[in-house]
Specification:
The chain is mainly alpha-helical and 68 residues long. The chain is built from three helices and two strands; from the N terminus they run ααββα. The longest helix is centred in the last third of the chain and has 14 residues, at 39-52.
Length: 68
């Protein structure tokens, strides 16, 4: 898929898709100077992103272990 197709599919701007590709967040490859995204890889990425959910905040090592 081309960047425009992925942007339309995900309802994002092309700039956002380019940023995700450059950061390595979204799977894709440059072919002839243009990004291409496999539909299978995109589906897998969406499934995993949804399953993982948001990253929990780190625990505070200075927090007390319990109220006493």
């Amino acid at each position: 898929m081309k960047v425009r197709e992925v942007a339309d599919f995900l309802r994002l701007t092309e700039t956002t898709v380019y940023n995700l590709l450059q950061k390595g967040t979204l799977p894709g490859k440059k072919i002839g100077g243009q990004w291409r995204i496999s539909q299978t890889a995109l589906t897998h990425w969406l499934d995993n992103a949804h399953a993982e959910g948001p990253t929990p905040p780190p625990s505070d090592p200075h927090a007390s272990a319990g109220a006493g």
